[in-house]
């Protein structure tokens, strides 16, 4: 199963792992893996995802039954009940946190207009942190105002909106932050071009399919890029303004990806069994995610 934090903690996206294994499939059940995509994956059964991975811990042997029960419970929540399950990870040498855990803001911006937008994005992210985005609730109920779909069905809309939001967060926004931190040959204007070229089409499309806050936020960022970034003679300040907006936006978009994955009607997976010999679906998913 994957525990997927919404916020891309920028430094963790580009910090190389000290230790990796060539194939996570062969690692023992109970292994925890941490990825640059901000997944904390816990192996609790058969895996098919034979990819390089960075193990960061393991579940104690005496807790394996509880782990498998938790993994199957998460799958049941995703595929049947749609219950949102909060997972809290904390330092076991300290008391278990019981209070509300607020999301951190890595950057706030400098100008008044940018601060206001970053705070608005953060507030929307915080509102949906332990539940579902109000926009995506409507999409996954067939209530998007645009009536996006095919042949009077919104099934394709659920597929397409996830297919656009996931790479927008993981591949576009996260990587702009990564490039800004690790590629000094990319100046501010290069970063702005990356945003405008690669984020514009998916943002507009998912706006049509029902992600209204995402689309309006993209447009507001584009306006502020013109007013507060490209029109700012102080390049250091302009760079901080730009990255503050992208950081907040990335956090929100990655949350929507998690919302989409939770909301998708996974109960239909039984209609499409893997046809190859040896396929295992004992834990609800061949990759135990």
Q: What does this protein structure show overall?
A:
Helix 3 packs parallel to helix 8, helix 5 packs antiparallel against helix 6 (188-209) and helix 6 (188-209) runs antiparallel to helix 7. It is built from eight helices and four strands, in the order βαβββααααααα. It has a four-stranded antiparallel beta sheet, with no helix packed on it. 32% of the residues are buried. By secondary structure, the protein is mostly helical. It has helices at residues 10-14, 64-81, 112-127, 134-139, 155-182, 188-209, 212-229, 235-263, and strands at 2-3, 31-34, 40-42, 55-58. InterPro entries: Cucumopine_C. Residues 114-262 form the Cucumopine synthase C-terminal helical bundle domain. It comes from Aspergillus nanangensis. This is Cucumopine synthase C-terminal helical bundle domain-containing protein. It holds the Pfam family Cucumopine_C.
């Amino acid at each position: 199963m994957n525990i997927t934090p919404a916020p891309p903690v920028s430094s963790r996206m580009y910090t190389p792992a000290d230790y990796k294994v060539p194939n996570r499939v062969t690692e023992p059940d109970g292994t925890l893996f941490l990825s640059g995509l901000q997944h904390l994956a816990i192996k609790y059964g058969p895996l098919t995802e034979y990819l390089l991975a960075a193990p960061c811990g393991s579940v104690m042997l005496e807790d394996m039954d509880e782990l498998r029960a938790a993994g199957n419970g998460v799958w049941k929540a995703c595929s049947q009940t749609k219950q949102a399950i909060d997972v809290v990870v904390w330092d076991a040498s300290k008391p278990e946190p019981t209070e509300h855990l607020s999301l951190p803001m890595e950057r706030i911006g400098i100008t008044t207009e940018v601060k206001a937008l970053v705070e608005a994005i953060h507030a929307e992210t915080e509102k949906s942190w332990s539940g579902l985005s109000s926009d995506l609730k409507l999409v996954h109920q067939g209530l998007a105002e645009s009536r996006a779909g095919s042949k009077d069905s919104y099934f394709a809309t659920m597929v397409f909106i996830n297919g656009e939001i996931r790479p927008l967060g993981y591949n576009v926004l996260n990587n702009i932050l990564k490039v800004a931190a690790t590629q000094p040959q990319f100046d501010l204007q290069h970063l702005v071009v990356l945003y405008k070229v690669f984020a514009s089409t998916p943002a507009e499309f998912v706006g049509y399919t029902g992600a209204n806050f995402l689309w309006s936020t993209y447009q507001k960022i584009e306006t502020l890029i013109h007013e507060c970034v490209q029109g700012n003679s102080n390049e250091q300040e302009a760079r901080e303004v730009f990255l503050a907006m992208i950081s907040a936006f990335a956090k929100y978009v990655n949350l929507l990806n998690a919302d989409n994955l939770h909301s998708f009607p996974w109960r239909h997976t039984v209609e499409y069994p893997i046809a190859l010999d040896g396929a295992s679906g004992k834990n609800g998913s061949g990759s135990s995610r």
